[in-house]
Amino acid sequence: MSPPDPGPGVPPSAATAPAPGSGRPRRPDRPDSPDATTPVLQLVEITRRFGHTVALDRAELAVRPGTIHALLGENGAGKTTLMRIAYGLLRPDAGVVRVGGAVRRFGSPAAAIAAGIGMVHQHYALVPAMTVAENVALGGRGRFDARDAAARVRRIGEETGLAVDPEARVADLSVENQQRVEIIKAVARDATLLILDEPTAVLAPAPAAALLAWLRGFARDGRAVVLITHKLREALSVADDVTVLRRGRTVLSSLAGPMSADALADAMLGGAPADARVRSEPRDPPRDPPRDPPRDPPRDPPRDPPGDPPRDPARGPRRDPGI
Fold first, then answer.
1. How far from the centroid of its chain's Cα atoms is residue 134's Cα?
2. How far is CA 111 from the centre of its chain?
3. C-alpha pair distances (Å), 190 with each of 24, 29, 184, 186, 223
4. What is the distance between the alpha carbons of residues 20 and 14, in angstroms, rounded to a whole number?
């Protein structure tokens, strides 16, 4: 018997690939928890318009459990818009969102969070005047207890290696630690799928490498990561699968292993050379301004032939004395 069709958007040969890890115990309140072959997140023919602008045109994405999925594309390709739909910040005009195989219609981020989806935005959504513990607890249920909130931040920091002082004000934190707070928020809400929008754009090389290593460990036990980025070599170094959007459409979905940076650049730019980063359509070379036709050089006044004696206008020409 042939295996069932995994559905659109699943990378070739990825549907039957085993998840790299045994997986976390399924939560009883999440009957749609995925198995080893069901995508954690599947977006099918997603269309989204803003007025007359088509931001997404039947875009597709499928994220396997236990993997890091790199979502690539130029600025304006629709990457963030697609993930905002997955996170419940936007509603699609058409298409289907599936989480663990079940169709979902998220009306808000709270619904997506309840389904196990967390998102770290490129511009952090933190309250600078509040402490780390207060930011992590913000949006939760029940009565706020400062001591319990601080203890929870410390426990998650120890478990994940992303330790941050829970009593520190967010305004006093470095960019790296503010990003940690955003990740701790998602982990505190039991996220099984973590979406990060350009997470290394504001980090130095060493913190960026440490973050990517942590994401590898986060996905290893059956959870999953979507990494929105434009850094091709970084994506290939950490991702298991890649999807490329161009002008709102999915133009490539593949395992990361067989891909090269040049091939991804071609997909992003529509077949343009890999070094064409600014524009994909060649322009005519600049033309020099019109020039006047060349003129003959100025002529010197006529001269006597060499050897002739100079003429005196008053006396006339000199005569040879021998004549």
1. 29
2. 24
3. 11, 12, 10, 7, 11
4. 12
CA 248 – CA 47 distance, rounded (Å): 8
CB 100 within 8 A of CB 34: yes
At residue 44, the 3 state secondary structure works out as strand
Measured from the Cβ of residue 32, the count of other Cβ atoms closer than 10 Å reads 16
26-29: Cβ within 8 A, 24+ apart:
27/190
Interhelix angle 146-160/175-188, rounded to 10 degrees, is 100
Q: What is the mean pLDDT, run by run of 10 residues, along the chain of 323 residues?
A: 50 43 36 64 96 96 96 93 96 96 94 94 89 89 86 90 92 92 91 93 88 91 91 93 96 94 93 38 42 56 54 53 47
The pTM of the full predicted model, rounded to 2 decimals, is 0.72
3-state secondary structure 270-300: CCCCCCCCCCCCCCCCCCCCCCCCCCCCCCC
End-to-end CA distance of the chain: 129
Torsion angle (degrees, nearest 10) of CA 10, 13, 14, 16: 110
Helix (H) or strand (E) holding 113, with range, is helix 109-114
Query: Could you identify the residue written with the tokens 């100025």?
Result: 298
Residue 71, token pair as written in the block: 């979502």
CA-to-CA distance for 246 and 232, rounded, in angstroms? 15
Rounded CA separation 207/189 (Å): 24
CB 91 within 8 A of CB 107: yes
Distance CA 314, CA 133 (A): 114
At residue 31, φ and ψ (nearest 5 deg) are: -65, -15
Torsion region of 252: left, alpha or beta (phi above 0 gives left; psi -120 to 50 gives alpha) = beta
DSSP letter, residue 263: H
